[in-house]
Design goal:
The chain has one domain. The longest helix is centred in the first third of the chain and has 32 residues, at 2-33. The protein has helices spanning 2-33, 37-61, 69-91, 93-122, 126-146, 158-186. The chain is elongated, with a radius of gyration of 17 Å. With 187 residues, it is mostly helical. Helix 1 runs antiparallel to helix 2 and helix 5 (126-146) packs antiparallel against helix 6. The protein starts with a helix and ends with a helix.
């Protein structure tokens, strides 16, 4: 069992690094392409779609969707959000920002729950718990911003993605330290 837990912890570390690096790349593209509406719109659709795929991979690698109900729900929420973003783009960026705000709240709560559930098995989940809580607060901020008169853009979502990148990379580093400590303790 310790080898299985160690293997899953290593997988989770790689997963967190992958999520973090994706977010960094997304941010870079968002900043570069902010003035190009078609490409920026594509990025806005890709972000929740990627989250759905990533949660699906994570759940499947950790016992499946039935064993990970919060992630199964997150796959559904992120998939619905992907479609909702496409539909909101027909209206305007205020609607897109509102959709992102609702998604940030829901996915944040689900991430928080997943982090709490994983705490016993893997440790080092305090970062993901904090990330989930902050995502929820960021969602409220995005909704408030979407109700304003200033025209939002993809750059209004960049800080949210930036904090996500930070938390995923910090979690990966924290798990790396935990893996090294376990290896040192064994040998």
């Amino acid at each position: 069992m310790p080898n299985e837990t160690s293997s899953q912890t290593s997988w989770l570390r790689s997963y967190y690094f992958g999520r973090g690096f994706f977010s960094v790349a997304w941010i870079a593209l968002a900043v570069v392409l902010a003035g190009q509406p078609v490409l920026a719109s594509l990025l806005l659709v890709i972000y929740p779609a990627w989250d759905a795929v990533a949660n699906l991979f994570d759940a499947r690698s950790n016992g499946g969707l039935k064993a990970n109900s919060s992630q199964a729900l997150n796959v559904a929420v992120s998939s619905i959000t992907t479609v909702a973003v496409i539909l909101a783009m027909i209206r305007d960026m205020h609607a897109v920002l509102a959709v992102f705000g609702v998604w940030a709240i829901l996915s944040g709560l689900l991430q928080l729950y997943t982090g709490v559930r994983r705490w016993r098995a893997y440790g080092a989940q305090w970062v993901m718990i904090l990330s989930g809580a902050q995502s929820t607060l960021a969602g409220g901020f995005m909704i408030t911003r979407s109700l304003g008169t200033a025209a939002p853009s993809i750059l209004d979502i960049v800080p949210y993605a930036g904090f996500g990148a930070f938390y995923f990379l910090l979690s990966a580093i924290w798990l790396s330290v935990a893996i090294r400590r376990q290896a040192s303790a064994r040998g």
